[in-house]
Amino acid sequence: MTHSVEKSGKTVEEAIQGALKDLDLPSNKVEIEVLEEPSKGILGLIGQRPARVKVTKKICLADKICDFFQDLIEHAGLGDVSFTSVFEDGVLELEIKSDDVGTLIGRRGTTLDALQYIINIVAGNYWRQLEARGFSRERVRVVVDVQGYRRRRAASLERLAHSVAERVVRDGGEIRLEPMNPMERRVVHLAIGDCKGVESYSEGEDPFRYVVVSYKNKGKE
């Protein structure tokens, strides 16, 4: 597919419209560079030059990631699956809708985490390709969710963290939680940070890394 064309016309606007027609794109989807303003020349005849512009399709990293994700779910044999996307502040949220939620999430979210990991690798590769071609773009972090699973899981972890903090304050000692992925551990650490008299830290190696909740200043930082 052609991503850039140079076009001439009697006026800059005429040249731009010609380029847009060739690219089959609206003006808000392109970047326009005026290479040469039109010149009437001497007496409107000698040295007359047309306007010349270069029109380039805007490259949106988030759109490329969404296109890849669409192809992925169409060829993965996941049944009737669709998704919506929201891109804001460098974060692309992909929300999957499916009748088979359990399969997409997996045990403790392992399948969902694996899918998110793959998409973020692809996003990183796209970003490096654009950088190599001279297109400076902000890196995009992708979060993949299935019908609000991550939000529900985060709320559940926050409740767990507060409950564990109360037990530690009441009974003393420390409590080790089940292994969690980095995103889930961060939720727990933030929740514990709001609790008085306790602190949290992580131990172990992924994928078995876990959070420990202990008395303030009694555990590791």
Overall description:
The protein is an alpha+beta fold. The protein folds into 3 domains: 4-57, Defensin A-like (2-Layer Sandwich), CATH 3.30.30; 61-147, GMP Synthetase, Chain A, domain 3, CATH 3.30.300.20; 152-215, Ribosomal Protein S8, Chain: A, domain 1 (2-Layer Sandwich), CATH 3.30.1370.50. It is 41% helix and 26% strand. The strands form 3 sheets. The protein has a 3-stranded antiparallel β-sheet with strand order 1-3-2, with helices on one face. The longest helix has 23 residues, at 110-132. The two termini are 53 Å apart. The mean pLDDT is 87.
Short description:
The protein is of the alpha+beta class and 221 residues long. The chain has 6 helices and 9 strands, in the order βαββαββααβαβαββ. The protein has helices spanning 12-23, 61-75, 101-105, 110-132, 149-171, 182-193, and strands at residues 4-9, 30-36, 51-57, 81-88, 91-98, 141-146, 174-176, 198-203, 210-215.
